[in-house]
Amino acid sequence: MPLQNDKKMHTRDEKMAAFGRLLDVMDRLRAECPWDRKQTNESLRPNTIEETYELCDALIRDDQQEICKELGDVLLHVVFYGKIGEEKQQFDIADVCNRLCDKLIFRHPHVYGDAVAKDAEAVLESWEQIKLKEKDGNKTVLSGVPQALPSLIKAYRVQDKARNVGFDWEDKQDVWAKVREELDELEAELKREDRQRSTEELGDFLFSVINAARLYKLNPDNALELTNQKFIRRFNYIEQHSIRAGRPLKDMTLAEMDALWNEAKQLEKE
Length: 270
Fold this sequence. Notes:
The protein is mostly helical.
């Protein structure tokens, strides 16, 4: 059954009991299931990445039923890694929770201390400075950005972290001159047919567009995924039409496909 907006929420005791039940299930699976018993941090890592992407997909579709399900899958992995750490006598799930709480308290002095933060922007401005003061914290402003992040997300994160210490455009409208400059440089290198320089300039152009999105408080990764899904829907419409007509896509003219594309666009508006 789909989750309802008026669903009765659980009490704190019920939430604690549910988490305890999950720990009990994990303990038993680890002890009695051959597959679960065999898993290691290394073997679980690819599945963790997959589950995270599945959660992201559910989030962008705003599918509440799937979000609930995928959150459970991600939580399973968190508990699983905690169990493995416990077996190695390195840490357990309580250490994970306590370290997280300690970090959150330290990074929110406006809630747990005497600092004042009037709005979310004020919180973000002090965030990086607080992290640099942490024991075992980031040694530099950008060191906290994981190297394995997808490039688009990484670009947004490094720009945002630089902004938090004051390295940013004073007027967000000024970014458009930079976007146009980078586009001109890209076009110039493409005309020269210099593949290496064209690749570099393409990166600079994309970086500047992501920067513009950030300044206007738009998430470029979400925006691109919405466009991906839109393209898939419209292209699938063209392909389904070709199947019904008994004509392979490669035999259709571009004008025919474009007309069907516009049909798909119109249907989305209805």
